[in-house]
Design a protein that fits this description.
This protein is mainly β. 0% of the residues lie in helices and 28% in strands. The chain is built from no helices and 3 strands. Strands 2-1-3 form a 3-stranded antiparallel β-sheet, with no helix packed on it. A hairpin with a 3-residue loop joins strand 1 and strand 2. The radius of gyration is 12 Å and the shape is globular. The chain starts with a strand and ends in an 11-residue tail after the last strand.
């Protein structure tokens, strides 16, 4: 999954599940301390549901 975070600048993160993950469809990206985020966009193959918590 690719996540693009926009604020003072734009950062792109690529997330991959490890073999140790029990929930293959869940990812966590903690943006604490990054910068003031104004938008988040996510892309992945297949069906994707994005949930953003503040």
């Amino acid at each position: 999954m690719t996540v693009t975070v926009t604020g003072e600048t734009t950062r792109t993160f690529t997330l991959q599940n490890s073999d140790r993950m029990t929930h293959r469809q869940e990812y966590l990206l903690d943006l604490t301390g990054l910068f003031k985020v104004t938008s988040v966009a996510a892309e992945a193959g297949g069906t994707l549901t994005l949930s953003v918590e503040q």
